[in-house]
Amino acid sequence: MRVYRTGVVGTGFIGKVHIENVRRLGNVEVVALADKFQAAETAEAMNVPHYFEDFREMIDTMDLDMVHICTPNNTHFEIAMYALEHGVNVICEKPMTTSIGEAKILCEKAEETGLVAAINFHNRFYPMTNHMMNMIKDGELGDVFSISGSYCQDWLLYDTDYSWRLNTEESGDTRVIADIGSHWMDLAEFVTGQKIVEVCADFQTIHEFRKKPNKTVLAFSTETFSEEDYTKIPVSTEDNASVMFRFSGGAKGSGFFSQVIAGKSVAIDLLIGGYKKSLEWDSMAVNELQIGMRDKGILHVEKGPATVHPETLPFVAYPLGHAEGFVDAFKQGFREVYESIDNKDKKYHYATFWDGLHEMVLCEKIWESSKEQKWVKVPQEV
Ligand SMILES: NC(=O)c1ccc[n+]([C@@H]2O[C@H](COP(=O)([O-])OP(=O)(O)OC[C@H]3O[C@@H](n4cnc5c(N)ncnc54)[C@H](O)[C@@H]3O)[C@@H](O)[C@H]2O)c1
Questions:
Q1: 7 Cα–ligand 1 center, Å
Q2: Most buried of the four, 39, 200, 201, 216, by CB within 10 Å?
Q3: pLDDT tens for residues 14-53?
Q4: Every domain of the chain and the residues it spans
């Protein structure tokens, strides 16, 4: 068995999830991590043998097969480019970059090198989202005419909530759309096989100013400080986004995306209407799929080897009644990405840099649509 040597850049919230779950594959050794902040402490806590402050030094010295990029969005480009230039495969967190231009250059570089270049749109890897995709592919719903839903969180509800995501330079021109709308749009397109071709968006910022703590705060932190420990900063990105969509297969729909809806810690909903049946998946009941039938009502299907589509079976790791969630989706996605290093010809489900580029185009067009308050076409080739 080949054992892959992996390095993880950025070990805040999601980098640790990467380390824990890539280890579950059994054929991956996390040999190093790189972080500008507390690299030594994290390496010790997670039993990673080597640590670096500079990702370049890690790539130069550790003879890596794969780099996982788990840093703020504006750093993805230089890290991914450095890895590809040095012959290292890449799994990059979403959104791919902060601009279409950068994403395009990375796609070209990935193609030129022939290396694996994946984006971690992990929602594709829940058993029930994969099952949905297979049901639609088999025509069980009939033609799909509507694709709607939402992705809501609440961790930025208060004006004292702060993250690098509020800084346009680090996060890009859109926040809610790039951070979580991109997940929903990628999932909607993956499940239905229809691409978003036109958008009409309306953004809302509920806090025009926020209080930024005068020290580093990790994502989703609930730490509070006294008034003198904050600096008042203007916010130019959206807290809420309402978007109408037109899809390539003729479906229409809408999405509501928010980081300020109290009680919705992480809630994704995807509702698909077809001429025969409807499907609804809600991440709060991640192992369940609702199949809507006009004459029989709603059938609630639980994830299990006997209840999913045969082609979904590789994504079901445990029997009926054994919940599989967020971290399992990461493991399943990583499994495919690593398999593709030495077996390029198989068809995989993971998002590639090209899918990441398409999401960057969507982010920009949605931002443009909200600014200009009109429908905007989404170019499919850039
Ligand atoms: N797939 C998902 O569900 C998911 C969830 C959360 C975050 N993300 C994505 O993961 C990325 C990181 O988000 P997070 O929530 O973990 O942020 P975070 O702030 O918790 O962690 C980021 C880490 O990167 C480090 N860092 C920053 N610049 C660096 C550099 N140049 N070199 C090395 N380390 C550097 C920071 O010190 C920090 O430890 C973002 O792109 C985000 O969109 C994806």
A1: 14
A2: 201
A3: 999 999 999 999 999 999 999 999 999 999 999 999 999 9
A4: 4-122, 125-320+353-376
Mean pLDDT of 269-287: 98
CB distance 13 to ligand 1 below 6 Å: yes
| CATH classification (class only), 4-122 | alpha beta
**Quick check: helix, strand or coil at residue 199?**
strand
With H, G, I as helix, E, B as strand and everything else as coil, classify residue 296: coil
Does residue 325 have its Cβ closer than 6 Å to ligand 1? no
Question: Domain 125-320+353-376 is classified in which CATH homologous superfamily?
Answer: Dihydrodipicolinate Reductase; domain 2 (3.30.360.10)
How far, in Å, is the centroid of ligand 1 from the Cα of 76?
10
- Distance of alpha carbon 375 from alpha carbon 127, whole angstroms: 34
pTM over 0.85, yes/no: yes
- Looking at the chain, how many residues does it have? 382
DSSP reduced 3-state for 55: helix
Instruction: Return the minimum-mean-pLDDT range out of 91-95, 192-196, 212-216, 376-380.
Output: 212-216
Of ligand 1's atoms, which has the minimum distance to the CA of residue 122? 1
Neighbouring C-beta atoms of residue 87, cutoff 10 Å: 12
| Atom 4 of ligand 1: nearest residue by CA position | 14
Find out whether the beta carbon of 34 lies less than 6 Å from any atom of ligand 1: yes
Residue whose CA lies nearest to ligand 1 atom number 9: 93
Cα separation, 26 vs 331, whole angstroms: 11
**Of 9, 35, 96, which is best to mutate to test ligand 1, by the most ligand atoms within 8 angstroms of its C-beta?**
35
Contact by Cβ (8 Å): 164, 198:
no
| Percentages of the chain per state (helix, strand, coil), in multiples of 5 | 35, 25, 35
* Strand 278-282 with 267-274, pairing: antiparallel
Per-residue confidence (pLDDT) for residue 242, from 0 to 100: 98
**Residue 36 CB–ligand 1 contact under 6 Å:** yes
**Cβ atoms 183, 121 nearer than 8 A:** yes
Task: Identify which of 22, 93, 156 to mutate to test ligand 1's pocket (most ligand atoms within 8 A of the CB).
Answer: 93
Ligand 1 lined by 35 (C-beta under 6 Å): yes
Q: What is the pLDDT of residues 45-69, one digit of tens each?
A: 999 999 999 999 999 999 999 999 9
